[in-house]
Amino acid sequence: MTYNQAILAMARDGLSALSNSALVRKAHTAAQESHFMCNWMAEALKKRTYPKCLANELTIWVRDGRSLGAGAKLKALLERIEHQYGAVEQGGKPLGDALNAWLEQLKADDVLVITDTPIDAKLKLDNDGLPSVIISEPEFKGHIADGELIKPITLYIRAEENMLAETALQHGLLLSVGDKKASLIKHHKAYRIYPGNNQPGLSLLIP
């Protein structure tokens, strides 16, 4: 089972458990709902209901549920996961073509897109802080074949993350969570896309 399959199954199971619980048959508060979800996740973690690849996320969410209560927004979190991972579950156009279509949309929205320069050392882009997406030319050319993504690609991006997640999903793409420390471009974060959208961890979620 891939990470994507596991996280989607977990989200669907959690939401189903909540909808079938006694809570839905009576008036309940957001705090009670969060308490239910937190206990459900804790039980799933204890029983190892899901693959080990979800253990870290479940541990964090259980901790958040216990410390933040309703503020953890666990139901909303599972709904976001179900929406985003469900949208790419059946696949779609080849991901290399999807990436190119997404980049064209970003260009049309006045995002600077650079794909014709090798990136192999720390750099600074002088673009007055405007949104930008940079992909090293060898990766952009060498990791796509016949329209399909055959190897992971790193994107160095400076842009509003909600927009990134939303527009990427419109083209059937999941982005990794941005990593500022891993970026070779100053003031940018490093994001990754993977063949088959098979991210090794939780992707960047739409709020």
UniProtKB/TrEMBL annotation:
InterPro entries cross-referenced by the UniProt entry: DUF2913 (IPR021316)
Protein's recorded name: DUF2913 family protein
UniProt xrefs under Pfam families: DUF2913
Superkingdom of the source species: Bacteria
